[in-house]
Write a structure and sequence with these properties.
The chain is α+β, with helices and mostly antiparallel strands. Strand 5 and strand 6 form a beta hairpin. Uracil binds next to helix 5.
């Protein structure tokens, strides 16, 4: 998506550049901290064009990349969802060429031992939007659990499980494969609480042994190899961003 010539409201520009949420950017503008081409602007409706205008916050230039990049990574086990780690542990940033994508960051997180679809973007506003509970973005996980899952447990997973941070929203849960000792479940949730799938499965008596995220909104992992990443196509970006 090429935004370099798009005329957009100042608060949208700032939010997209990752300064803060759109609402917080409005407050920053009203506080007189933003200038456009050297002149302080406090008018929220002011339009700017990335290619033409120089936008500064507190005297520091805020750049909006010419094009917004969204990457999909198939995260392997053993990587922290972080761009750096003070203890030099393996991070997802080790798997993408960060110098080619300045300002890129992961959208949400997967646990260290969860594999699968993890998005990255340079667009702070998009990142916030995709994670906001109001947006109800469906995420589908495949979970290997010990034992054979009863239909009662499936119903509980679907209707809501009581966790220490409250009952979960309605979900979709189905068995996709059974082996002698284990079951592969497919679970689709739209919330994004910490370790949610593991905690939901624990709560119904089926601890997770393996967990993979296979889809995020309209996007699927497809045949992307573990440890590999790719840029989303223009069509995928449009599908993901909706009316944005
Ligand atoms: N739910 C979990 O329990 N772990 C993840 O990594 C993602 C969702």
């Amino acid at each position: 998506m090429d935004y370099s010539q798009e005329s957009m409201r100042l608060q949208k520009y700032l939010a997209r550049a990752g300064v803060a949420s759109r609402r917080a950017c409005e407050a920053i503008i009203l506080a007189g901290r933003v200038s456009v081409n050297g002149a302080v602007v406090t008018e929220l409706g002011t339009k700017v064009v990335s290619e033409r205008d120089t936008v500064e916050v507190d005297g520091k230039v805020v750049l909006l990349g010419d094009s917004q990049v969204i990457l999909m990574l198939n995260k392997p086990k053993g990587y922290l969802t972080s761009m750096s780690d003070p203890f030099s542990r393996a991070c997802v940033s080790d798997l993408i060429p960060t110098d080619r994508y300045p300002g890129i960051f992961p959208v949400g997180r997967l646990d260290c031992n969860t594999t699968g679809l993890l998005l990255f973007t340079t667009d702070g506003e998009l990142g916030n939007k995709l994670l906001h509970p109001r947006e109800h973005v469906d995420k589908t996980y495949h979970a290997l659990v010990a034992g054979h899952v009863s239909s009662d447990a499936l119903r509980q997973l679907e209707s809501g499980v009581v966790l220490e941070d409250g009952i979960t929203s309605p979900a979709k849960a189905e068995v996709i494969k059974k082996t002698k000792k284990n079951t592969w479940l497919s679970l689709t949730i739209h919330e994004g609480r910490k370790r949610q799938v593991r905690r939901m499965c624990d709560a119904v008596g089926f601890p997770v042994k393996e967990l993979q995220r296979v889809s995020f909104g309209p996007l699927s992992l497809g045949d992307l190899k573990q440890g590999s990443y790719r840029e989303l196509t223009a069509v995928e970006c449009r599908e993901l961003c909706g009316d944005k």
